[in-house]
Amino acid sequence: MSKIIFTKGKIYTLDQNHPVVEAVVVENGKIVDLGAHEDMVLQWGRHDAKMVDLQGKMVTPGLIDSHLHLSGVAFQFLDLNLTGVSSKREMLEKIRERASATPPEKWLSGLGFDENLFDDGGIPTIQELDEAAPHCPIFIKRICHHAFLVNSKALEMANYHPSMQVPAGGSIVLDPDTKKPTGLLLESASTLITDRMPEKTYDELKQGLGLAMEHAMKRGLTSVHTNDPRYLGGFEQTYKMFDKLLHQERKGLRCNLLIDYPFLERLKERGMYAGYGNDTLKIGAIKIFADGAFGGRTALLSEPYHDASGEYGEAMHDQETLFQMVKAARDHSMPVAVHTIGDQAVENVLNVLDQFPSVKHRDRIIHVSLLREDLIRRLAQPTLVADIQPRFVVGDFPWVEDRLGKERIQYLYAWKSLLSAGVLCAGGSDAPVEPIDPLLGIHAAITRRHPGETHNGWNEKEKLSIKEALEIFTIGGAFATNEENIKGTLSRGKLADMTVYSNDLFTMHHPDELLHTYVDMTIIGGDIVHQK
C-alpha cells in the first residue's frame, strides 16, 4: 500500500516528545513518521505517496468513547426516540402518533424520556399512557435505562397481579392511595415486561447497529468501548453482528466489547478473554452492576438521601455475591468493569477488588459519580481506570442537589480531584443516556454546565482544561483497554487514527465556540471514514 501524507494541519499529537506537528505519514494503517510539512514531503513525498491537505485545521489523536451502548444508539434509529423531548404533552403526543400506526397487541417500544426537561409536570401517569395508547402495549425506557414506563395493556400482557414476585433489585411503583401500578417500573422489574416482548430480528438489530457505528464516526469517534449483549440477544448474536459489520462490511469503527457477567461462562467456552481479537474488534472486561442511579434513588450511598431520610439506595448484589462474581472473572484472568454511581457502591467494589491480585488488563470503575476523599485516594492505582461521563453534569444538575444535599455535591463528578490525585480517567458518554457526541462531552468537562446556560459551572473547581478534556477522550481511553502502546497519542508506530476539527479548540476565546465546532474528518488506520 502506498504511503499517505496528511499535511498542512495544526496537529496536536498529545505526545510530549513532539507536541505539535504539521504532517503525519501513514503506511499500512500506522504512523511511520511525523514532523514539519517540508521535511515530511522531502523525505516521503515520492510519486506513489498520496497527499491529503488538512487546510490548516486542528487534528488530534482519534477520539475514544470509553463507555457507551452502541445497541442503545441503534434503538434510537429503530424505536420511538424521545430524547430531548421537553414536555409531557409532547411526549404523550409522540406516543399517540406512533400508537395510531401500531396494530393492536403489537408492542410500542420507546426510549430516552427525561422528565427533568419537562415544563408541564412530571412523569406521565398510567392513565395518560392508556389514553395515548389504549390498544397496544407500550414499554418506554427512561434516558438512564434504570426506570421504565408501561401502560395497562403491557401489564395485562405480562399477566400482572398484585402478589406477583418482582425480581431482586427491582420494584413496581404503586400509587400510595389506590395501591395500583403507576406505570413506573424500576431496575430489574423491567424484565417482567421485556421477557414477554418479542425480540427484534437479527437483521433489524444489525441494521440499527451499523447506523450507530456510522453515527459515531460522524461525531469524530475512532474507537468505542461498548456494552451490548443484554440488548442484542446475548453474547453469541452480539459478537456475530460486530464481527460481520467490522470484518465483512468493514464499517471501520474500532470496538472493544464489554461482556455482561451472565455471559462469562460462554466466553470461556469460546476460548475468548480480555484482549482477544484484533485492533478492530476486541473482547474487553466483564461488566457488573453494583448499584443503580440517582434519579430513582437506587444509587447506593453511605449516608441517606437528602430528600428521602432513611433511604440509602440499593446494592445490586450483597458483598459475598459481588466477591464470587469478581472471583469467577479472575479465575479466567479477566478484568471487571463495574457500574458504581454512589459512594458506598464504589467502596464496596474497591473492598472486593482489594482481595484479588490484579490481572494483565486494568479493572474499570464506571461512573464513580459520588466520591469521598478516601475513595479518591484508593482509586489512584495503576491497575484501575475510572470511566467518567462529563455530560452527566448536564443531565443531573440542578435536581441532583435535592437528592444529595449541598455538602456532598462537592464530591459529585469530581474529575479535577481525580486527575490531581493521579487517578487514570477515561472519558465517555454512556450513550444513549447522553449524546454520543464527544465534543458535547468535552464542553461539559470544561464548563460543567448545560450548553444553553451562562453561569460559571456546577462546582466549578472540578472543571477540566481543554487539554485535560481531550486527554481523557484519547489517552485515557487507550489506558482503559491497555492499548496505550498503539493509540491515544499520535506517535511513530501507533495506529493512524485521527480526528480533524473545523476550529482550533486550543485557541478558542470562549468555551461555547465548541458548540459551533464540527468534526471535519474522521480517520481510522489512515482511511477517511467520514468527511464533512
Provide a descriptive summary of the structure in words:
It is globular, with a radius of gyration of 23 Å. The chain contains 19 helices and 24 strands. Helix content is 30%, strand content 22%. The mean pLDDT is 96. It is α/β, with parallel strands linked by helices. The protein starts with a strand and ends with a strand. The strands form four sheets. It has an eight-stranded parallel sheet.
List its salient traits.
single chain, alpha/beta, 19 helices
Helical segment count: 19
The proportion of residues forming helix, as a percent range, comes to 25-40%
Distance N to C terminus? 25 Å
Read across the widest sheet, the strand sequence of neighbours is 8-15-16-17-18-19-20-21
Going by helix content, strand content and strand pairing, the class is alpha/beta
Q: Indicate the overall shape.
A: globular
Cα radius of gyration in angstroms = 23 Å
Question: Which residues sit in consecutive blocks of at least 5 with pLDDT less than 50?
Answer: none
